[in-house]
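Quick illustration, no need to memorize.
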Amino acid sequence: WLWTFNLTVEPGLSWVDQTTSLSLAPSMGLGLFLVPQRFFVGLEAQNLNAYTQGQLNESILSIGPVFSYTGSNWWADLTLLPQVANFMGSGLDLTQSQRWQVRLATSWSL
């Protein structure tokens, strides 16, 4: 089994109107290696929180599968994250957020 936690922080400043913004996106995953140390399948959950001028104006939860493959000095993973909850309103937020996120990440060891 493998457990992961990531925190993505994206600060922003608009020079035009002097507004600040901040995006915080904690994500957690849990999975299992199907082929020892090579192929991994799991589940990831991400909560995207967007702030403008210190005020929370978006909080979206997405949950979906992740598939990963590890080579001798590289890895790649594919995550499919459908939006499942909007904590700032009723129903899904399809005006400010995507219905689906598809993420592909890779890394090489130099």
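Residues 58 and 95 are 11 Å apart (CA to CA).
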